[in-house]
Amino acid sequence: MSARGEFSKTLDELWQRRMYRLLKLMRLAPIGRPATLTRDQREGLITELQEKATNIWIRRGTRGIFRKMTWCARRNRITKGEAKSALINWARKHVPGPAIYSFWANGTCLYTGKADNLARRLRQYMLHGSEYLRAGNTIRVFGIKTPRELPKAECLAMHLFRPKRNGARAATKKWAKKCLVCQTNRLIRTELLSVFRMRRT
After folding, report:
1. d(CA 72, CA 100)
2. What are phi and psi of 91, to 5 degrees?
3. Using one digit for the tens of pLDDT, what is the confidence trace for 79-92?
4. Which of 1-5, 145-149, 192-196 tops mean pLDDT?
5. Taking Cα atoms as reference points, which of 121, 56, 113 lies closest to residue 87?
6. Assigned CATH for 69-175
7. CATH 3.40.1440.10: which residues of the chain?
8. Which of 100, 110, 108 is nearest to 157 (CA)?
9. Taking the CA of residue 162 as centre, how many other CA atoms within 13 Å lie in the half-sphere pointing to its CB?
10. Residue 37, CA atoms < 13 Å, CB-side half-sphere
11. Among residues 152, 160, 179, 194, which one has the fewest Cβ atoms lying within 10 Å of its Cβ?
12. Terminal Cα distance for the chain, rounded
């Protein structure tokens, strides 16, 4: 089943939960009382729907929007020890402006961030012994064509790369109010919490 089909099916099931009292009165409800969801189950359902919604938006062109506002500098190997200084020198030479960067380990994105000056940001990571430099083996860098689009590009990159260790999602940033993916995910949470609050049978 497609992501859109799975999303619609889940919404149909939620609608039946919300309308259970009416369906029961009309003798149209499924046999038996619907199971009560725990808090963890509710959060899991919200996350599941948000993931499906994100997949739908990505297929609708989110990746293309990101590509139009960036240029791919390069994918670099992260080496251990003093050789890491070569990464700073490369960033200083090839990425002079703002950029989106992401640390990867064996095909999994660990962290995605933005930087006005990539070389300075990488130096900070090295001075503080960043866990991303220790755990990651690759860094991907995308230069930004228009500096003012840096927050927007970071938000889209987080949706596209799905970093595992970001402490704060891009939804907390200023551009997120305009991001269709963030708007959809906030609406999903609001609506589902409303469903759970109203379900008293």
Report:
1. 10
2. -65, -40
3. 655 556 788 888 88
4. 145-149
5. 121
6. 3.40.1440.10
7. 69-175
8. 100
9. 9
10. 19
11. 194
12. 32
Q: Which of 144, 157, 173 is nearest to 73 (CA)?
A: 144
The sheet that has 138-144: what strands, in order across it?
70-77, 138-144, 99-105, 108-115
The Cα–Cα gap between 96 and 113 comes to: 16
Q: What are 21-76's pLDDT values in tens digits?
A: 677 777 776 666 565 677 888 888 888 888 888 888 888 888 888 888 898 876 67
Q: How far apart are CA 191 and CA 32, in angstroms?
A: 25
- Are the C-beta atoms of residues 192 and 200 closer than 8 Å to each other? no
CB 74 within 8 A of CB 44: no
Give the residue, 33 or 101, on which the prediction is more confident.
Answer: 101
Cβ–Cβ under 8 Å, residues 138 and 106: no
Residues 6+ apart with CB under 8 A from 88: 119, 122, 123, 126
Average pLDDT, rounded, for the chain: 81
Written as six digits, the tokens of 194 are 């409303």
Neighbours of 101 (CB within 10 A): 24
CB atoms within 10 A of CB 180: 14
What's at 143, amino acid-wise? G
Using the predicted structure, report yes or no on whether residue 142 has a pLDDT greater than 90: yes
